[in-house]
Amino acid sequence: MKVHNRSYSFFHFNLFLASFFGLFLALSCSKEPIRENPGDTNPDPPSATFDDGIFVVNEGNYNWGNATITYIDNTTNTIEQDLFERVNQHGLGDVAQSMKVYKNMGFIVVNNSNRLEVVNIKDFKSIKSIEGFSSPRYIEIVDSTKAYVTNLRNDITVVNLRTLTISNTIKTNSWTEGIIKYGKYIYVTCVGNFNEPNSNRHAQVLIIDTDKDRIIDSIQTGKEPLAIVVDRKNSMWVLCTGGYDSYEPASILRINPDLRIVEKVFNFQGISGVPSKLCINPTRDTIYYLKGGVYQMPVSSLSLPAQAFVTGDGHLFYGLDIHPKTGNIFVSDAVDYVQNGKAYQYSPKDGQLIHEYSTGRIPGSFCFSPAK
Fold first, then answer.
1. Rg (Cα) of the chain, in Å, rounded?
2. 41 in a structural domain
């Protein structure tokens, strides 16, 4: 479940949940769900394999159950729409949030359906649907036996990868969002109490001992920390929105994960737009984020970039990720949250457009399948 925000106006950020406030209904302009591909005359399951390409995770509209996956072949740039439904003959669910590939499996986090869909990454056939999450957000693999899933409703779910069942729950003080592995630990952004506008309480990075599935420490952050990445020197970067009430400036923090301290704070000036979707390139020396356009920032930089690397003029940029091998920039366009969206591939050297793709409704994130 997400706030689908035109011009970042709802609570000043475009990826937070709004089921609590009913904002999705205001963005649903037609009374009946629209088919994602009304011109598709070939309902047969695709015969291709899917272990060398890009998956676009299309959220779909809240409470419509029209989430989909678009697949882009790395070699031919051909597209398969509605991949999950065409292969498995049933829908993916309500609000697909994110996806991660591990070995031969794909894990699709379906937020409002409160489940994790596990598929065979080669043919995309369903292996298992794991139920029982609390509005899940993102998944991180601990090792071949275990994964963690962040949730909106104050916990982190532990998944047994051998049995594909929920094995444990780690209680938190508020919504958990971004998640990354560092050594034997998992670092998780804990958003805090966003319904308390004048409080930074519980806005922090949690540190979890993966041997014990237990929170052992935390690092205080700016208001509403979201995404988290690690650079080539093992510094950790965290993006904070500053709060839906603009309680404080949005910021990007550089954290020393070994000393567990904030080393530097990069504050955004003004309140025109809020940054989101922090990610990093394959060499881990450059971070990217959205703020209307796509911004590119070397980790050695002493200040935030003044201008967008890829301008967002004429687009509603919504999702962002970097190809883990080529470093190419993938950004999605939600258009108007009602029509099918678009995805674009840009060069990291000069920001020039390489390819444009059609997607399903509200493309929110990307997942990259390993090459054959």
1. 19
2. no
State the total domains in the chain: 1
Q: What CA–CA distances, in Å, run from 286 to 279, 295, 296, 299? A: 9, 10, 7, 5
Sign of dihedral through CA atoms 77, 81, 82, 87?
Answer: negative
Least confident of 42-46, 158-162, 242-246: 42-46
| Mean of all residue pLDDT scores within the chain | 87
83 φ, ψ (degrees, to nearest 5) = -60, -50
- Residue 150 tokens, joined: 């962040």
Ranges of H-type helices in the chain: 23-27, 83-88
This prediction has a pTM of: 0.88
| Domain encompassing residue 211 | 48-368
DSSP code per residue over 124-158:
--EEEEEE--SSEEEEEEEETTEEEEEESSSEEEE
Q: Which two tokens stand for residue 207?
A: 């540190």
What values do phi and psi take at 281, rounded to 5?
-80, 170
